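BACKBONE STRUCTURE TOKENS:
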Amino acid sequence: MTSQTELAALMCSRLCHDMLSPVGALSNGLELLADEQDAEMRARCIELLEQSAKISTDKLKFFRLAFGAAGGFGEAVPVKEAQEVIAALASDAKRVELNWAIAESSLPKPAVKILLNLSQIALDALVRGGSLDIGAERRDGNVEIVARATGDRIAFDETIGKMLQGDADADAVSSRTAAAHMIALLAEEMGGGLQYQISDGALVLGAVLPEPEGMIG
């Protein structure tokens, strides 16, 4: 079983891995800008720096909301915050059409963390673009979440799917699967569960989570 310390270390590795590319691009861009004299090339360097800065900011906003514990785990989070974060990541990914089906104005913070992580997993699967449909609703005392990725090619490691369902071995937990493991533990703590289904051209990730006490209704 992965300890909390090991999981935290793996999550840090995941964050560093995801931030290395855009931050490295910023560093390289600054070096090029310092040496470049041509006005057109300097303008191009500045454009690339702006793009890298945006990607870095978008990723940090995602990490803060999807993994952070600020404000505790019992509060409601405006759905708009989650939508803005995922919309930014989808924009950075390019060629992804994002569709929402969420009538709620806010959801419990654990549910938002799970929604964000399922959305990120689905987005990562769209290596050649496609559509990402995200839905959530309250029903019979539960919060039900679904993230559906549809595209010409779906790249999905089923080890992540097994991790979501708690079926994978402890040795399978790595920086790549740590987020799936984390939200599986979170869903279990809430008394709920996660599931996945993959078929030609589609990946569906879902969650059923009991509402925290005091937040039903």
